[in-house]
Amino acid sequence: MVTTEKPKYKVVGTRPIRPDGVEKVNGRAEYGADVSLPGLLPGAVLRSPHAHARILSIDTSKAEAMAGVRAVVTSADFPPREGDGPQARDNVLAHDKVLYVGHAVAAVAAVDLHTAEDAVELIEVQYEVLPHVMDVRDAMLDGAPILDATLRTGEPDGSKGDSATNVAQHIHYEKGDLAAGFAEADIVIEREYETTMAHQGYIEPQNGTALWGPDDQIRIWTSTQGLFAVRDTVAGMLGLPVKSVKVEPVEIGGGFGGKIPTYLPPVAALLSRKSGKPVKLTMSRKEVLEATGPTSGTYMRVKMGAKKDGTLTAMEAWLAFEAGGYPGSPVGAATMCVFAPYACANQVIDGYDVLVNKPQTAAYRAPGAPASEYAAECLIDEIAEALDRDPLELRLQNSVKEGDSRADGFTYGPVGHVECLQEAQESPHYQSELSGENRGRGVASGFWFNIGFETSMAAQIQSDGTVPLVMGAVDIGGSRASAAMQFAETLGIASEDIKPHIVDTDSVGFTFLTGGSRTAFANGWAAYECAMDMRRQMEERAATIWDCDRESVRYDDDGVIRGPAAAAGAPQEFTFKELAAELPNTGGGIVGRADVSKTTHGPAFATHIVDVEVDAETGKVEVLRYTAIQDVGTAIHPSYVEGQMQGGAAQGIGMALNEEYIWDDKGRMVNSSLLDYRMPTALDLPMLDTIIVEVPNPGHPYGVRGVGEVPIIPPAPALHAAIYNAIGERMRTLPMSPRRILERTLPDDE
Amino acid sequence: MSDKIIVSATINGDPTDILVSSRDSLLEALRERAGVLGVKEGCNDGNCGACSVLLDGRLVNSCLVMAAEVEGSDVTTVEGLAEADHLHPLQQAFLEDAALQCGICTPGFLVAAKALLDENPSPSEHEIRYWLAGNLCRCTGYDKIVRAVQHAAETLQTTS
Amino acid sequence: MQDLRYAKVSTVDDAVAALQAGGSTARVLAGGTDVIVQARARTRAIDMLIDIKGIDEVLQVAFDADGGLTIGAAAPCYRIYGDADVREHYPALIDCSTLIGGTGVQGRASLGGNLCNSSPSGDSIPAMIVLEGRAEIAGPNGRRTVPVEDFCTGPGRNVLEPGELLVSIHFPAPAPNSGAAFLRFIPRNEMDIAVVNAATQLRFDGDTVSWARVSLGATAPTPLFVTAAGEALVGAALSDETIAAAAAASKAAASPIDDMRGSIKQRKHLSAVYTQRTIAIAAERARG
Question: Distance of CA A129 to CAs A327, B32, B41, Å?
Answer without folding.
Answer: 22, 39, 34
